[in-house]
Amino acid sequence: MAKKSVLNKKSMDFLEKYLNNAAPTGYEWDGQKIWMDYLRPYVDEFITDTYGSAVGVINPKAKYKVVIEGHADEISWYVNYISDNGLIYVIRNGGSDHQIAPSKIVNIHTKKGIVKGVFGWPAIHTRNKAKEEPPKLDNITIDIGAKDKAEVEKMGVHVGCVITYPDEFHILNKDKFVCRALDNRMGGFMIAEVARLLHENKKKLPFGLYVTNSVQEEIGLRGAEMITQTIKPNVAIVTDVTHDTTTPMIESKKEGHLEIGLGPVVAYAPAVQQKLRDLITDTAEAKKIPFQRSALSRATGTDTDAFAYSNGGVASALISLPLRYMHTTVEMVHKDDVENVIRLIYETLLKIKDGETFSYFD
């Protein structure tokens, strides 16, 4: 018999609203407010910091602290230069892909509101077919319909304005979630669902739980670096996305074999504390939650690294959601994987003991 879905209509309404809201790196606050409003019934209090990381706390008086974490920001662009004839050149804010830009509609965020624009591209008829020039940072431009630089500036656009894509959430074939910013708005969604399940199932944890939605991951784990110093946790379970390596032009021998629909991905890496990871995999096996494994050289490239190497060392682990087409506007994940990440974090929390050190020397 199929397991009952952990997601309900309220969950899905929140997910759609949360994904459709723009929250580029450095400008996450509106998304954080949406996230906090949803989480509010399930936590005792909130912590926020100067740059916008948000933490919902359960059992705030407990000395032993466990973090479950995702990151809130999405990749975007900055206005970098405005030409005399009113075209806008950009630089990255995070790992934005220049090759997908041509013909995309954009939202430029200004003090006067959203200004619409398009990444233009020369027609196929006019290009040198013997030597096609690919999209590059120095040849992609945004056209907002202005005749010159003065008109661009009159519309409220200036150097430093942040630019996002407006692509919104939809579902393919009943169980594939598609949107921009699934990396890693899905993480914030999944940890919020864990808090909801703990509340609805009346589970009392013997420790403080810090449901943490960090900012600025896309430009170097910066939000996690800050908030871990505020929380000073004993344990951190981080969730992010990882690559489905079955899509074209990805070499599985290099990247490993990972696939959407086959379950959460448990990371093996120096930053991952092995006893904590073993607790996660043992829990998955005991609860019959499917999972995959991934080996990561040196760094995980996720907020796991920031937590693990903070405060003299924090026992940390990484549970990833397999995703197709990362850093595009059509990122795709499988509903079953989303639910199984939620289940795996939830069930693992129920196994953690108050004061557990995960030390090999105890």
From TrEMBL:
Pfam families: Peptidase_M42 (PF05343)
Keyword Protease: yes
Top-level division of the source organism's lineage: Bacteria
Keyword terms, alphabetized: Aminopeptidase, Hydrolase, Metal-binding, Protease
PANTHER family from the UniProt entry: AMINOPEPTIDASE, AMINOPEPTIDASE YSDC
Key word Lyase present: no
Known cofactor(s): a divalent metal cation
Binding note for cofactor: Binds 2 divalent metal cations per subunit.
Binding site for Zn(2+) 1: H71, D183, D240
InterPro entries linked: Peptidase_M42, Peptidase_M42_aminopept, Peptidase_M42_dom2
Active site: E217 (proton acceptor)
Gene Ontology biological process terms in this record: proteolysis
Stated name of the protein: Peptidase M42
Sequence similarity: Belongs to the peptidase M42 family.
GO molecular function, a single term: aminopeptidase activity
Residues reported to bind Zn(2+) 2: D183, E218, H327
